[in-house]
Design brief:
Helix content is about 45%, strand content about 20%. By secondary structure, it is α+β, with helices and mostly antiparallel strands. The chain has two domains: about 1-30; about 30-110, no CATH class. The chain has a four-stranded mixed sheet. The longest helix is centred in the N-terminal third of the chain and has 23 residues, at about 5-25.
């Protein structure tokens, strides 16, 4: 682990502990009622992976460390473990999946809906 990675890791852990202590000492602070809080690692950007193949393999490596089976759906490779109301996930969205989404979004401006009164 490089010194920069070690520093970022230490800062993240310290920040999570600080947040937990703050919430614990301030019971009037709202917390999410539904769903989970996510810590998301994007394997192509947050790890040493430099190719899509390496990023996908990194999702598998993290899944093994978490003791979970990675899921693949629509070009999204995800390894997720929950710790109470907190989810730690590693993910990679393939270039093909991003291209499909971009193609869908390219039609966005071609469609206009009539304004619905009161909406």
């Amino acid at each position: 682990m490089s010194p920069a990675q070690h520093h970022r890791r230490r800062d993240l852990i310290a920040g999570l502990r600080t947040l937990a202590a703050f919430l614990d000492s301030h019971p009037q602070m709202p917390v999410p009622r539904y769903g989970t809080v996510r810590v998301s690692i994007h394997t192509l950007y947050d790890t040493d992976a430099t190719t899509e193949t390496e990023a996908i393999a990194e999702v598998g490596r993290v899944a093994a460390l978490l003791g979970v089976t990675p899921t693949i759906q629509g070009g999204h490779h995800v390894a997720c473990a929950t710790f109470g109301a907190v989810c730690y996930e590693a993910l990679h969205v393939t270039h093909a999946a991003m291209a499909r989404r971009q193609a869908l979004d390219s039609y966005r401006d071609a469609i206009t809906l009539d304004e619905i009164e009161g909406a």
